Amino acid sequence: MPKKLIIFLFVITLFLCGCDNLPKPEITSGIRGEELGIDKNINEKTIDNYLNRDDSVYRDMRMLKDPGNYEAIGGDAYLSGFVKGFEAIPYPLIVNVTDLPKEVGNTYTGKTLYTYKNGKYMPNYEESKAILEYYFPKDKNIFLMCGGGGYAGGMKNMLVALGWDKDKIYNVGGYWYYEGNNKVEVKRKEKNEVVYDFWKVTYHDIDFDHLHQL
User: How many CA atoms lie within 13 A of 131 on its CB side?
Assistant: First the structure.
């Protein structure tokens, strides 16, 4: 093979690989970064550019109906819509939620896969780690989203603390601020009543009754 052709193919390969690379996770500036850990490069404004990747999974951390009063901070306690391709795995079922804004009050306080206490995440069931690794595979890029960015940020912190690669996890932020073209509406009005088409949501509940408590 001619030397020039080899060089040309090498350059093309580098170019193609470079185009497919994701920017390294980088926390944005201001309160969105300091308190929530939302990513600077891949967030509500840009996530459309990174959808449908075979090397990635997309997780929305909200419950279908959160007991917390998120309306008090301009949000929605219901999962009223989501970004196409994201699957819902409720963060409050994974670990006890701490540090919610006082206006929100309390969220779900039932059984969880893990308990966070004194800076450590302790599994509550024999299957806790296996479930976490199944829904958040370590060999994939993980895009996390929720309503405002808090649950997604908490999920990233948890995964990193348990050994996941921080450079493969992105806190995309909150659906309430999504500005893209892949919105799937769940909330709608029917005869002047609000209806939620939860059947549109790929929702992963956790059946604690069939797990083995530690």
Answer: 23
